[in-house]
Write a structure and sequence with these properties.
This protein is 56% helix and 9% strand. It has a five-stranded mixed sheet, sandwiched between helices. A hairpin with a 4-residue loop joins strand 4 and strand 5.
C-alpha cells in the first residue's frame, strides 16, 4: 500500500470518529459557542433537545438562566419529545423554579408515560388540584396509573371521587407489566411489592365504605385483581358477612396464591371479630441496636411486653405467631436492623392493626433504658412514646417491660 492511500484511509477514519465531527450545535445552524449563548437561538436548541441532545441542549439553555424563562413551556414540550426528563426538569427548576409551566410540564411528561414525573408532581400537593381531570384520565388508561393515582390523592385529598379512582386502579393491575423472574420472585410477591403498599394506604382511609366494591372484585376474572382485592380487605380491618362469604369462596380459587391470601384474610377477619371492636395493636420484636442480647432473650422480652400490653391497656394484641409469619412473608432487608416508621406502617397494615408498638433496649454506661414508640397506622404518625430507665440484667429488663406497658396504659397507649 502506498503512502498516499494510507493517509487517505486515516483521514476517512478520523472523520468517522465522534470527536472529529464538529460541535453538536452546528447541525442546527448555530455556528459558534457565542451564538449558543443567545436567546435568539433557543428554538434551534430546542430542536436539538427533541433529537435527544439532552445534556448538551439543556446545558446551553441553563446558562441563559432567566433569559430563557419565557421559553419554559416550549422547553418542557421539547424535553418530552426527546425523552429527556431529568435534564429538562433540572434546567427548568434552574431558570424558573416557581413557574406554573414547570408543573404543567411534569404533567406532559406523565402523559407521555414518564412515570417519575408524576412522582415529582405529587410532591406539589393541592397546588396541582386543577390537574385532577388529567390525572384521573391517566388512572383510567396508560402505563403510569399507579403514579397518577398518588398524584390525584395529593391534588384532591378530600375528593369524594377518590374511592372510585382507587377501585379503578385496582382493576388495572396486570402481572403482564411486571418483569417476572420466577427464580427470584413470584408474581404474587411482586404484586405485594409494587401495588399492595401503595393501594392499601388509600383503601384503609375509606373503611367500611369500600368493602362492597372490594367484595365484588374478589370475583374478578383476572387472578391478580382477585389477589390484590383480598390483600386490600386484609389491610382495611373491617368485616361483614358478605366479605366472609367471598373469602370462603376464594379459598377454592383456581390460583394457589389467591387461595393462600383468602385463608390469611379469613384468619384476620376472625381475629377482628373476636376483638369486639377494640383497637388492635401489633407489638413488634424488641430491638437491641447494640447487639448485646441473644435471640432467645429478645424473644422473651417481646413475649412479656406483648402480654403486659394486653393486660394493662385492655387493647387486643396481634398474636405473636401471626407477626412472625408476616415478617417471614414480607422479607424486607430493613427489618433485620429494626423497624423504621415505614416498616411499622407496612407490617401494621398487613396485620389489620390500628396501632403498632416498637421497643428498643438502649445501652449506656452502667445502665440501660427501654424506649417505646406507638404508631397510628391510619394517620401514619407517631402517636405516643415513653422511656423507662433500668439496670441491664435480663431480669431488670423484663421488669422494665412491665413498667413500659404501664406507662403506655397511663397515657392511653
Amino acid at each position: 500500500m502506498n503512502h498516499s492511500r494510507w493517509y487517505l484511509l486515516l483521514a476517512v477514519a478520523a472523520l468517522a470518529l465522534p470527536g472529529c465531527r464538529g460541535a453538536w450545535y452546528e447541525a442546527y445552524g448555530i455556528e459558534s459557542e457565542a451564538e449558543l449563548r443567545s436567546p435568539d437561538k433557543i428554538p434551534e436548541i430546542l430542536k436539538a433537545l427533541e433529537d435527544g441532545w439532552c445534556d448538551e441542549a439543556t446545558g446551553a439553555i441553563g446558562r441563559m438562566r432567566s433569559k430563557a424563562a419565557e421559553y419554559l413551556p416550549d422547553l418542557m414540550e421539547s424535553g418530552a419529545i426527546g425523552d429527556c426528563y431529568q435534564a429538562t426538569i433540572r434546567v427548568a427548576r434552574r431558570i424558573a423554579p416557581d413557574s406554573p409551566a414547570l408543573l404543567k410540564g411534569m404533567l406532559v411528561f406523565g402523559q407521555k408515560e414518564r412515570c417519575e414525573a408524576l412522582d415529582d408532581l405529587a410532591k406539589s400537593g393541592t397546588k396541582i388540584a386543577s390537574m385532577a381531570p388529567e390525572l384521573r384520565a391517566m388512572v383510567d388508561g396508560g402505563k403510569c396509573f399507579l403514579e397518577a393515582l398518588e398524584a390525584l390523592h395529593a391534588a384532591t385529598p378530600d375528593s369524594a371521587d377518590l374511592l372510585e379512582a382507587d377501585l379503578c386502579a385496582l382493576q388495572r393491575i396486570d402481572v403482564g407489566t411486571l418483569s417476572t423472574l420466577r427464580s427470584l420472585s413470584s408474581q404474587s410477591s411482586q404484586l405485594d411489592e409494587k401495588y399492595v403498599p401503595v393501594l392499601s394506604k388509600f383503601f384503609v382511609k375509606h373503611g367500611e365504605q369500600v368493602l362492597p366494591g372490594l367484595v365484588k372484585l374478589i370475583g374478578h376474572e383476572r387472578w391478580e385483581v382477585r389477589y390484590c382485592a383480598i390483600r386490600m380487605v386484609a389491610h382495611i380491618g373491617k368485616v361483614d358477612s358478605n366479605l366472609v362469604a367471598a373469602l370462603e369462596r376464594a379459598k377454592s380459587d383456581s390460583e394457589e396464591d389467591v387461595q393462600q391470601a383468602a385463608a390469611e384474610a379469613l384468619r384476620k377477619a376472625k381475629f377482628i371479630t373476636l376483638s369486639g371492636g377494640k383497637p388492635v395493636v401489633a407489638v413488634l420484636d424488641v430491638g437491641d441496636p447494640a447487639g448485646k442480647l441473644d435471640k432467645s432473650q429478645l424473644e422473651q422480652l417481646t413475649d412479656y411486653l406483648t402480654a403486659q400490653v394486653a393486660e394493662k391497656t385492655g387493647f387486643q394484641v396481634v398474636p405473636r405467631d401471626q407477626i412472625r409469619d408476616k415478617l417471614g412473608s414480607l422479607k424486607r432487608e430493613s427489618f433485620k436492623e429494626g423497624f423504621d416508621e415505614a416498616a411499622q406502617l407496612e407490617i401494621g397494615r398487613a396485620l389489620a392493626a390500628k396501632k403498632s408498638l416498637t421497643a428498643r433496649v438502649i445501652w449506656m454506661k452502667g445502665k440501660c433504658a427501654i424506649t417505646a414508640v406507638v404508631m397510628d397506622i391510619e394517620k401514619e404518625t407517631s402517636e405516643n412514646a415513653t422511656t423507662v430507665d433500668t439496670a441491664c440484667s435480663i431480669d431488670a429488663l423484663t421488669e422494665g417491660m412491665k413498667k413500659l406497658a404501664q406507662n403506655l396504659a397511663d397515657k392511653n397507649l
